[in-house]
């Protein structure tokens, strides 16, 4: 498999101000761009020839929902798309069958074909809230991976050594620690790299945890006679706690399909320091605009005002401007002690019921231990009154139950 890029890679094109401006767009908020001079030359070639670059992002549909941490790299894709380049949203339906071992200390169970198909259905629908749907090329890596067959897989495996594979940090740690590494896990970076060959990628994007896999793609392209792709890694967005990366399993995430009021409230809960990190990685405002907002805060403006602007921008992106305005009104009303209009209605049995069980059964907390923690911190209210006794029993009746600032339910207990 060869590329016309291989034939033109030796020619040097003049670097214009437009190419340098495009480079600045690509680098905004990124962790690393390899190799910068090569990518600048690709941009110059694209401008001179009128042929857009092919920019690839591969995502395995391991879960059906996307949170705003995932949109950091999608935002970058959109910025490059707006510059006129071709973005390829690659759904890893084949690689999901292997399971990405990145950052894991144990073998990841591969998904079934049924799970992959279910998740993939909603994946692009959510990604299209960021990308330009009409200008996005959607591909599935089973297109070329399934065709390889056993002989093709063996030939592909011959192009990379075990020593190189064990340079990968997570593999090294597992090998040194005596933790099993299944042979099929070595196939994952190879197959991801082969995707770049099949798509003749000019640039591949990913999180910082994907750097090794992206470099494999670059190496394989050289071996297949193609001009090697550049790679651009984006930081992993910290979750609401400001410490761990955003993750559903850590419950510190904002789902892009969440209700506007929940999304708004979560964004308002981040620290004033973390707010700037979210501005850099999530906002579509220019760097100059963000710098001006920083100066205003340094000059005495309330950081809450700036956080409201961010929350409204994000809610409007995934819902609408009208929804963002309503979310602000609801947030302000809650801050004054008001109960939202659209709280869920829950019916429970078992009165008198322990407060921790009531909170869990009403789906206001994931566990009784989480319920007790909220009670200890003064974050639980029934009809506006703080509940401080973890052993409290709630009699039959209908109550407005609140956990924290955003979780409400009208509970009828029988």
Automatic annotation (TrEMBL):
It catalyses: tRNA(Tyr) + L-tyrosine + ATP = L-tyrosyl-tRNA(Tyr) + AMP + diphosphate + H(+). The keyword Protein biosynthesis applies. Keywords: Aminoacyl-tRNA synthetase, ATP-binding, Cytoplasm, Ligase, Nucleotide-binding, Protein biosynthesis, RNA-binding. Its main location: cytoplasm. One of its GO terms (biological process) is tyrosyl-tRNA aminoacylation. Catalyzes the attachment of tyrosine to tRNA(Tyr) in a two-step reaction: tyrosine is first activated by ATP to form Tyr-AMP and then transferred to the acceptor end of tRNA(Tyr). Homodimer. This is Tyrosine--tRNA ligase. It comes from Pandoraea oxalativorans.
């Amino acid at each position: 498999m060869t590329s016309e890029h291989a034939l033109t890679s030796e020619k040097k094109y003049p670097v214009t101000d437009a190419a340098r401006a495009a480079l600045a767009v690509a680098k905004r908020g990124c962790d690393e761009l390899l190799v910068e001079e090569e990518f600048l030359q690709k941009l110059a070639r694209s401008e001179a020839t009128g042929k857009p670059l092919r920019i690839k992002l591969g995502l395995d549909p391991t879960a059906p929902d996307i949170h705003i941490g995932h949109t950091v790299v999608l935002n970058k894709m959109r910025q490059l798309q707006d510059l006129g380049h071709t973005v390829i949203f690659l759904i890893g339906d084949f690689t999901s069958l292997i399971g990405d071992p990145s950052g894991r200390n144990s073998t990841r169970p591969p998904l079934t074909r049924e799970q992959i198909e279910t998740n993939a259905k909603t994946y692009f629908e959510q990604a299209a809230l960021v990308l330009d749907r009409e200008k996005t090329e959607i591909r599935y890596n089973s297109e070329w991976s399934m065709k390889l067959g056993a002989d093709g897989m063996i030939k592909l495996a011959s192009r990379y050594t075990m020593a190189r594979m064990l340079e990968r940090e997570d593999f090294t740690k597992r090998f040194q620690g005596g933790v099993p590494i299944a042979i099929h896990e070595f196939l994952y970076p190879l197959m991801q790299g082969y995707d770049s060959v099949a798509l003749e990628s000019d640039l591949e994007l990913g999180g910082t945890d994907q750097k090794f896999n992206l470099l494999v793609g670059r190496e394989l392209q050289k071996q297949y006679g193609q001009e090697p792709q550049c790679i651009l890694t984006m930081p992993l967005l910290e979750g609401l706690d400001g410490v761990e990366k955003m993750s559903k399993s850590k419950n510190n995430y904002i789902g892009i399909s969440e209700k506007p009021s929940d999304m708004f409230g979560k964004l308002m809960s981040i620290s004033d320091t973390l707010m700037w990190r979210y501005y850099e990685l999530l906002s579509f405002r220019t760097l100059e605009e963000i710098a001006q907002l920083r100066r205003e805060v340094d000059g005495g403006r309330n950081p809450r005002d700036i956080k409201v602007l961010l929350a409204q921008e994000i809610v409007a992106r995934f819902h609408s401007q009208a929804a963002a305005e309503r979310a602000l009104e609801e947030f302000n009303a809650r801050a004054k002690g008001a109960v939202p209009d659209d709280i869920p209605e829950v019916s429970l049995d078992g009165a008198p019921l322990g407060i921790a069980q009531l909170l869990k059964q009403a789906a206001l907390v994931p566990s009784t231990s989480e319920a007790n923690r909220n009670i200890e911190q003064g974050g639980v209210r029934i009809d506006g009154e703080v509940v401080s006794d973890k052993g409290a029993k709630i009699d039959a009746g209908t109550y407005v139950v609140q956990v924290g600032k955003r979780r409400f339910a009208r509970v009828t207990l029988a």
